[in-house]
Amino acid sequence: MLQIYSVPVATYCAKLRIMMRHKGITWEELTPPGGYGSAAYKAIVPSGNLPAMVHDGFMLSDSEAIAEYLNEAFAAVPMLPKDMHLRAKAREKSRFHDTRLEPAVRALYPQVAYETRDQAVVRAGGEAISTHLSALDLLLSADVLPSDPLWLCDCGFAVTFAWINAFEEAMGLQVNWPARVISYQMRLSEFQAVADELSAYRPAMKSYLQKAYPT
Ligand SMILES: N[C@@H](CCC(=O)N[C@@H](CS)C(=O)NCC(=O)O)C(=O)O
Fold first, then answer.
1. Which of 48, 76, 157, 202 is 20 to 30 A from residue 193's alpha carbon, by CA?
2. 106 close to 11: Cβ distance less than 8 angstroms
3. For residue 26, what are the domain limits?
4. Residue whose CA is at the smallest distance from ligand 1 atom 19
5. Best substitution site from 13, 29, 50, 155 to test ligand 1's pocket, by max atoms within 8 Å of Cβ?
6. Domains held by the chain: number
7. Mean of per-residue pLDDT scores for the chain
8. Stretch (H or E) spanning 5
9. Which residue minimizes the CA distance to atom 1 of ligand 1?
10. Which of 40, 73, 106 is at the close of a domain?
11. Is 118 in the same domain as 152?
């Protein structure tokens, strides 16, 4: 049995669900006992992070470690290239998402609440995100991965792009979107697993963003 610890709004859980949907994997979703970071949850998942997985008694945390494990455990729909160099490039792209773009978006969560928002911080955040989007533009311009399949490295971007769009609407975030990045987002949205996950995930985003508006 495959169980995933998750909370509805968690970005990296949505990233993981895209890959599980694409592979046709079934899973059971569990709420971390006492909330993530609690002693009860850390007794199961020492990092206290979400997502975490338990597969037939085997526990693993970190969305990318889980995704790579599930890619091997459920190999029928491969989401990493066979070629060693392409596989390394796919991992490079995943790391760019997890260590560059997404953390710049995450830095704006403390600015969501309307009452305490600092527009100067939001502006600086928009500039930081734009810098990463322009780095992604360069990365995409040299992308050697075939564009037909959905790769592991694509899943996080689909979710993070949705958050940037949501922040543009809810907080007036200003971001420069390179044309190639917009095309990439559109291409990802055409995968059924991406479309299904984003439509299931949007209510959680909307509920989180309620505090972005004056009461
Ligand atoms: N690189 C980690 C990041 C996971 C992450 O930041 N998860 C958030 C929820 S989306 C979390 O657990 N935050 C609480 C914490 O870091 O203590 C991954 O890919 O799983």
1. 48
2. yes
3. 2-73
4. 63
5. 50
6. 2
7. 97
8. strand 2-5
9. 62
10. 73
11. yes
